[in-house]
Design goal:
Chain A has about 625 residues and is of the alpha/beta class. Chain A has helices at about 1-30, 45-50, 55-85, 90-105, 110-125, 135-160, 160-170, 175-205, 205-210, 220-225, 235-255, 270-300, 320-330, 345-350, 365-370, 390-400, 450-460, 470-485, 495-500, 510-520, 550-560, 560-570, 580-585, 590, 600-605, 615-630, and strands spanning about 310-315, 335-340, 360, 375, 410-420, 445, 485-490, 505-510, 525, 535-540, 540-545. Chain A is built from 26 helices and eleven strands. Chain B is an all-alpha fold and about 270 residues long. The chains are: A alpha/beta (about 625), B mainly alpha (about 270).
């Protein structure tokens, strides 16, 4: 009695552990507030928004189609292989099972990388071949086959081979005998193999991450790109729907009237058999049909001809989605939109050329690096008459990295500073020193990017943030190491959500984010420290291998139009270099905000990043890794 | 007759060579050459830098701890489950696969919401006037994430071997006078070894190589070997060093495969 109670408690504990996050996600899907960390009341609006969100529905469609196709192909190949392997002699069987174990045991990251290396090598022979849907599908089939083989093999071992031989003796053809004798026996194994493969494909992130290309997102990669800037609540709604429908299916299948196989065969009543069929076959089939049809419907709606397109590679959450729609409507050019998190993660992708982007939006020092590496095409400014709206001073500032203004058109600019919570910080904040104040241990959010982190430490010591002096760098490293014990987390865009929800008192943030966070949490204040800081420009550039250069120029021109630039400013709140757009801003307070448009005197203390060359890049990276692994 | 059946291995053999063997050869190629395509062992030696050694050591430690916790949690659970009647137990097994239908990243992120300073768990704790739990952005949170994500991979293989144990064997032992402890140590435990070994490798290897869990729950403060490799490929763009480090990781995978083929010859302990 006690034992069974204990067992129940234990089972309950494990289930709580397994399902606590899932309950959290379901709760979040009804949270009317946009940030993960604040409960804003009960609301079903995300479920409505979900079906209007083309990005997510597209990702869902891609995920389901890849899961379905890869599971189907893997089931076919895997089942055949399982049967074949049984017929091999012992030595070959061991070898084959060993190979089968490789993708199961190999680290996801190694499998993903090895496949990526293979696909990129294929480009040597087939230049047209590009990472995308096909490569993801091939990769998924590869890691799915072993699951099928391992599900089918045990069932095959249980089958009685004499029945098969008897069937042959009685005149059945091998194929007929297989379908009549062997297949029914191993069918449950095939089914569970298929289901497993489907589930694994659905849940995979790492392998997809390494094998996917521009514009192809599964739910996993979509979510990963959103982790940094905060997950869209529609995603919670979608997962809840998926989860609930699968749970519903499971309960249906398991509570459906069971056929009594053990009792002597009484013909089951017609009604009972009918309900069994309905529960076990029709309902699940109907649900799958709805899901797949829905996917096709969405894809048909959204995939117009790929002939006239422009592939844009931009920072996360760095454009008003409405602008993309307007551009497509006005020009008939389809925008394939892709996002990156840091300059450093963008650069190798463009350099590798696995995807030929038409338009990229890197920061100043990275543009310099791209120019030096001969990756950029000169822009034809005849196609960009709207350049006249861009302020003269920003073009001048651009000459620091693009001396003749040949390669870049400014898009956004801003400063790096400290965002602090007035209720949690007592003393006035005007210096970087607050980031080393032990009073705020575990209350500090630091930038998770090499140049930004070192820039802060170097400025704090009074050096240039483009320092190439090893002693200065060593000093900065020591400082950052000392700081690490005080840092709560190294973040990129999550600093936004964390500051809004009072998770931390002080954070390093880009000026553009500061305006948004203030509107969500009025206790927050932004300051450019007196030691000086970084002033940066993000500009549009066109890579050399762009396939649609003219479309890219049309897109830049569109973005330079004052009304469009103003729409973008309202949405992303990063300072615009478009002087005419600034005049269009309705709110006086924002038009004259010192955060968005700081005084020239404040900017004097600030510096722009320069590209330091491969050697110093490696030194910075090396030092940064030492800090991170401390 | 058998010859014809063997042909069915054909498509798989082709697939395996193209997408399993060749990619691994590619990793060897990149891992053992430098930028100028000269053969070198420098990339393998990357592992001996203090930072990388530390990352590897920490990864080994955290994944070892996670594996032990998974084993301790999973074994009793598998025993409880294997005693249920078959219909019920297949349902319960599905309960363990079901969470996978919610995306792995979202599930891990949900732990962030639960564990944060102002998170759900601390909300409940402070409501009950209990001390708050402060483990987010620490190795403890990473271990929790690993245990959470990989527990099913430990439960399922152990459950499978336990469910296959012939009840008559246990009854016979009891008839011969064995007590509960003896039945467990002499019968159940030895018979479940294939499942345990398979479970250990299926938890240990992914835990050793993860970069996502440490990223999300460790606040990017804790560098595991998976993070190092991921950064070599996606940020430093040093494929050679990344491949070299992957080769080092493969040593652990080879050890796992050797263990499996030693203890689990018939593939009984497979998870599914």
């Amino acid at each position: 009695m006690i034992k069974s109670a204990l067992q129940k408690i234990y089972l309950g504990f494990i289930l709580l552990l397994l399902y606590a996050p899932i309950l959290t996600l379901i709760a979040l899907s009804f949270n009317s507030s946009k940030t993960r960390s604040k409960w804003g009341g009960f609301s079903g609006k995300w479920y409505v928004a979900l079906f209007q969100n083309e990005d997510i529905m597209n990702a869902l469609y891609t995920t389901l189609i890849i899961a379905l196709l890869s599971a189907l192909v893997a089931t076919l190949i895997g089942t055949a292989a399982a049967i074949g392997i049984q017929a091999l002699n012992a030595k070959f069987r061991t070898v084959m099972m060993g190979i089968t174990n490789i993708p199961m045991l190999n680290a996801d990251i190694v499998t993903g990388i090895s496949l990526m290396l293979l696909f990129i090598a294929c480009r040597v022979f087939f230049p047209q071949f590009s990472l995308g849907f096909t490569t993801v599908l091939l990769a998924h089939i590869t890691f799915n086959i072993p699951y099928v083989i391992l599900s089918v093999t045990p069932k095959l071992k249980q089958t009685n081979k004499y029945t098969y031989e008897a069937a042959l003796d009685l005149g059945a053809s091998p194929i007929y005998a297989f379908f009549k004798v062997v297949l029914p026996d191993i069918f449950p194994g095939i089914c569970s193999g298929f289901l497993l493969a489907f589930t694994m494909s659905l849940d995979d992130f790492v392998i997809t991450h390494f094998t996917t290309g521009a514009g192809v997102h599964t739910l996993s990669t979509k979510i990963y790109s959103e982790v940094r800037k905060g997950i869209k609540p529609e995603m919670y709604a979608l997962s809840t729907l998926l989860f609930v429908s699968v749970l519903f299916l499971l309960i249906l299948v398991n509570t459906a009237p069971q056929e009594n196989t053990k009792k002597p065969k009484k013909a089951p009543s017609k009604l009972k058999r009918a309900t069994t069929i309905v529960f076990r076959r029709v309902v699940p089939a109907a649900m799958i049909l709805v899901i797949v049809a829905g996917g096709f419907f969405y894809s048909a709606q959204n995939r117009s001809s790929a002939a006239d397109q422009v592939i844009v590679y931009n920072w996360g959450e760095y454009i008003d989605p409405e602008v993309l729609d307007m551009f497509e409507e006005e020009t008939g050019i389809t925008v394939v939109y892709e996002e990156f998190e840091t300059n450093e993660s963008m650069f190798p992708k463009v350099q590798a050329g696995a995807v030929s982007y038409d338009l990229v939006c890197p920061s100043d020092y990275m543009i310099q690096r791209m120019i030096e590496n001969n990756l950029l095409a000169e822009i034809n400014f005849d196609n960009i008459p709207n350049l006249k709206y861009i302020g003269e001073q920003y073009l001048k500032q651009s000459q620091g990295f693009d001396p003749e203004n040949k390669y870049s058109v400014p898009y956004c600019w801003g400063t790096v500073g400290i965002l602090y919570n007035k209720t949690m910080v007592d003393e006035p904040v005007d210096s970087w020193s607050i980031l080393w104040n032990e009073k705020y241990a575990d209350q500090i959010l630091m930038q998770n990017s090499v140049r930004d982190a070192f820039g802060i430490a170097l400025k704090y010591c009074g050096y240039s943030l483009n320092s190439k002096d090893l002693d200065e760098l060593q000093e900065a490293k020591e400082l950052l190491m000392k700081q690490k014990t005080l840092v709560q987390a190294y973040v990129v865009d999550q600093v936004r959500d964390k500051m809004i929800s009072n998770e931390a008192a002080i954070g390093v943030i880009y000026s553009g984010e500061a305006i948004y966070t203030q509107s969500e949490n009025p206790d927050l204040e932004y300051v450019i420290p007196k030691e000086g800081s970084n002033v940066w420009i993000d500009s549009w550039v066109i890579p050399k291998n762009a396939q649609n250069k003219e479309n890219a120029e049309a897109f830049i021109n569109f973005l330079c139009r004052p009304d469009i630039a103003k729409m973008n400013f309202d949405y992303i709140t990063y300072s615009t270099p478009n002087t005419s757009a600034r005049e269009l801003i309705d709110d006086d307070a924002i038009r004259n905000s010192t955060i968005a448009f700081p005084d020239a005197s404040e900017l004097e203390r600030c510096e722009t990043f320069n590209y330091l060359g491969t050697k110093f890049d490696n030194i910075y990276n090396e030092l940064w890794r030492e800090i991170k692994s401390k | 007759m058998k010859n014809k059946k063997k042909l069915l291995t054909g498509p798989y053999l082709f697939w395996a060579v193209a997408f399993i063997i060749i990619p691994i050869v590619m990793i060897f190629y990149y891992g053992l050459t430098d930028d100028n395509y000269q053969v070198t062992l420098m990339n393998l030696a990357e592992i001996t830098t203090p930072e990388n050694l530390k990352a590897l050591g920490l990864s080994l430690l955290l994944s070892f701890i996670s594996t032990v916790i998974c084993l301790i949690l999973a074994y009793p659970l598998a025993m409880i489950l294997s005693q249920k009647n078959t219909n019920q137990s297949s349902f319960i097994v599905l309960i363990f696969i079901l969470p996978m239908w919610m995306n792995f990243l979202l599930r891990t992120l949900a732990w962030q919401t639960l564990l944060e300073k102002n998170g759900v768990i601390n909300g409940v704790l402070s409501f009950l006037h209990l001390p708050t739990l402060d483990i987010i952005n620490t190795p403890y949170a990473i271990v929790l994430g690993m245990v959470y994500n990989f527990l099913p991979f430990m439960v399922l293989p152990i459950f499978n071997v336990l469910a296959k144990i012939d009840k008559d064997v246990i009854n016979a032992a009891r008839d011969l006078g064995a007590n509960n402890i003896q039945v467990f140590t002499k019968i159940i435990l030895p018979l479940s070894v294939p499942g345990v070994i398979s479970g250990i490798t299926m938890v240990f290897v992914p835990a050793l190589t993860t970069f996502v869990i440490s990223d999300i729950l460790g606040g990017s403060k804790i560098l595991l070997i998976g993070n190092v490799i991921e950064q070599e490929f996606t940020q430093s763009f040093n494929w050679h060093a990344g491949s070299g480090l992957s080769l080092v990781l493969m040593i652990f995978i080879v050890i796992s495969m050797a263990l499996i083929s030693k203890y689990d010859k018939d593939g009984e302990g497979t998870a599914f």
